[in-house]
Amino acid sequence: MGALLVGAAGALLVLVGAQGLRLLGSTGLEDQVITHQGEQDEGPRGFAAFVDRLGARFQRTLMAMYGPARLRRLEDRLRRAGRPERLTVSAFMQRQAGFTVLGMVVVVLLALAGQALLGVIFGLVFAAWMEVWLRMVAARRRRQIDRDLPDFLDVLGVTVRAGTSFRQAVERVSAFHAGPLAEEMATALREMQLGVPRRDAFIGVRDRAQSENVSTFVTALLQAEELGVPLAEALGSISSEVRRQRAQQVRRDAAKAAPRVSLVVTMTIVPGALILMMAGMLISNLGSLGDVFG
């Protein structure tokens, strides 16, 4: 009986792990189907749909436990992460409840199999999975924005120097590029079309992106607008500054990665080299060792 429970828990963990790897590799855009025929969204499928159905009964309870203030913060975090998989607050909480229920099932199964501590560990992992996943998605999106911004500004500067107005230039460059930065710019354009001042729209981009480079771009752009600096010249200066900051970030990341690489080399190559040396010494001295030990 214990072996069956352990096997069932193991199968469940494999399924959840496979779905977790899929989510980690997802940008949140793969499932978005753009259609002009009025087709309805089919919603999540597969394991995600199973988790959502599992958490449907407990969604309201979990939202009540979070409270209004925490739910508002969650809404801000989802917006900054680009709404991965088009999740709203209620959909996020439903999936969070589903993973929590799955964690409780794993805890019970492993406890019955005599592995209570392991069950508690996996239960905590399941309960915290959606929060961890959202943080990783937001961080990956921020890195993508940092990578795209210098090229975006270069093309934007060329378009403005060609005589195109700033708003039309942003619209054209956003349509040409793909990714989260283009999405944020398109959102700012829609807000400006609805009457939001350009300053407020770009401040919104800065707040949602949570990127040091985007903050530099928006701040410099607004200052240039206030001081009357020619926009094409300002964009060139901003692009150079952003590239300089990006280069510094890459150097910092490389400096942080060096100790990790050294640790991996130490933990993998050194033990193998020691084993090889000791094996060679033993083989070359088998005769002497045989005389010593009789």
Question: How would you explain this protein's 3D organization?
Answer:
The protein is mainly alpha-helical and 294 residues long. The protein has helices spanning 2-24, 46-55, 59-80, 89-112, 116-161, 166-176, 180-193, 198-209, 212-227, 231-284, 286-292. It is built from eleven helices and no strands. The longest helix is centred in the C-terminal third of the chain and has 54 residues, at 231-284.
Draw up the topology in text.
Layout: H1 2-24, H2 46-55, H3 59-80, H4 89-112, H5 116-161, H6 166-176, H7 180-193, H8 198-209, H9 212-227, H10 231-284, H11 286-292
What is the structural class?
Answer: mainly alpha
How do the helices and strands follow one another from N- to C-terminus?
HHHHHHHHHHH
Total number of beta strands:
0
Overall pLDDT score: 80
In whole angstroms, the N-to-C terminal distance is: 51 Å
Shape: flat
Q: Give the fraction of residues assigned to helices.
A: over 70%
User: Ranges with pLDDT <50 over ≥5 residues?
Assistant: 24-41
Tally of individual domains: 2
Quaternary structure type? single chain
Radius of gyration: 27 Å
Taking the sheet with the most strands, its summary is: none
DSSP strand (E) fraction?
A: under 5%
Q: What is the tally of helical segments?
A: 11
Features of this protein?
mainly alpha; 0% strand; cell membrane; 294 residues; T2SS_GspF_dom
